[in-house]
Predict the 3D structure of the following.
Amino acid sequence: MHPFGNRWLRGSTATLWTSLALLALSGGGSQAHAQEDEGVRLGITYRPGYVPALAITDIVTEAPFAAVASAIDSVIARDLDYSDRFEILPVPDSLRAGSAVNYGLWNQLGAVWLLEGTLTVSDQQAILRVGLHDVVYGSLKEVQAFTLPPVASPDFRMAVHRVSDAVVEWATGEPGMAASRIAFSRRAMDGTWDIYVVDSDGRGVQRATRRNALVFSPAFSPDGGHIAFQYQSNSGDESGIYDLELETGRASAVTSGSLMHLTPAFTPDGSRILFARSASGGTEIFEVDRSGGSPRALTSTAVGDALGPAIAPDGRRFAFTGSAVGAPQIYVQEDAGARPRLISRFVRGADSYATSPDWNPRDDRIVYQSRVQGQFQIVVVNADGSEMRLLTSEGRNEDPSWAPDGRHIVFSSDRGGYHGLWVLDTVTGRARNLLRNSEDQLPDWSNVLGSDP
Amino acid sequence: MRPTARWTAMAGLVLFGLMACSSNPEPEVEPATDEAPPAADPGPDPAELAEAAARSLCEQAETAARRGDYDGARRLYNQAMSEYAGTECARSASSEIDRIDAIETLEDRIHFGFDRAELTDEAVATLNRKADVLRRHPDVRMTIEGHCDERGSIEYNFALGMRRAQAAKNYLSGLGIGEDRFRAVSFGKERPLDPGHNERAWSQNRRDEFVIENLGSI
């Protein structure tokens, strides 16, 4: 039976669908501030480039679904704004879609792209048909019909985000990141920590673990369905790396014991987990099959620590935080036992303290945090140590994680006077607040989430 | 022991003995009559009063010790010894003070430089004193907790805290104290001692805490 059943669009049920859809799209009423936040532009390290203007006309639909269509519209408009690849043009009320597109008129308004959509709700399903017009060339660039899941489904908002990502890909040839989530650690009043998850637009915060212990360093599996995390009991007696299945909430120990376990990361194929574990001199990085078994040491730092592995898309190289020479620095290593290469030491004005690397999912760039004039800032550098660039300058900025589009990062920051999670576009320098909670730390951005398997 | 002190102590013992005898067996109880003349009040027994007052001091001392107010506990025990010599409390006070000294020595924190896990000279001296106690009490077991100040990153501080705990553990093992008597754990920067955001607070928070898991013969 189709998930919509036969009740789709039947009298009051249709009204119910409408109100549920609005509720789903508003993210259950929480985090309603996200849209109000003005982006903050960082001037020092960014050269604003050309950003094409995109106009979005109201989605055409039958009267009972106008509110839903309008809500979908605003989600897509926000996603495309957050993609930082377009300037979203305000559309005059007089210009409605539905009839033939007047390219000349849109061109006069300054639009480069025009997005229009139709929402059709039948007995069986809801279909959102979206077309992207290239105003300059005066032609329809792409058109596609998206089937939306039941409104009560947790995937409903994600399905709308996938439409936004498709538009980004049509216009730019590059992947979007709207259909993704961010996991993070949140501290409770009693000083314990647990893992939470939030959509890429700051809506739909959900608690993922309820251990009331020292639960840190969430790391998404490549398919986004699981999260690996570090667990330490409040007494410190037990420590381990756990694998949480998000749908069921079940978590199982991949490796655990009395030794301290830290900073898990899935390999890109999802088969193994790299993590740090205390050894005689400090921590070393190990890898273990996702199903468990004996961990195998990858580093032999002997003096100081090796932790925080960040694996390259090739699955072979990894960056990590190492303190073999004293202060922590970022190293890149190929394969087990190979000699690590220092990549972080040349920041001018930095008092030599660099940790928490994350490897770009699409290229060879690494972000990490570095102490600059006594304050943590985010730095990006090529995996060979070249082209180092400061990405932040305001406040204390920590624990960056790349978005699946390979250009945005999420990190924790107290910029603007309050602590929270922030998203920064590394191309334009535009920053937006994701969550305004002083107790949120260690964000990890998932890959783009596919539709339900 | 000075002669007077010894005499006082002995007198105390005699008094204590008499008290014990007089209270057991139960004295005969006269049948109650309406016209019974009021019994002569013997007044409070001074020895009994001294015992009660000393006992109260000992109880306060124990409470103070449990709170970690070792100076307060020592002061109360010393007061019991000087003011109520010969009481049960006063007689145990000296060994209680030794016990508190041992516990305080074992619990003494050690501190570290920023982003450092090397033991300072002061830390080494503190650990040497711990080793003396640990040798005298071979069944004592401890958890060593490494802690950091708030300035470092969260994950790295867990590793750094562990190195701080292990530094103390390794040093004590090197002095011949069995390694299996210590457990090293790290709480990173999650449990600061001083919530301040200044060098004074930070230097307090970069520390090893020593938690006695098994007091053993202490």
Notes: DSSP finds four helices and 30 strands in chain A. Chain A has two domains: 12-172, 182-445. Chain A touches chain B through 36 residues (CB under 8 Å).
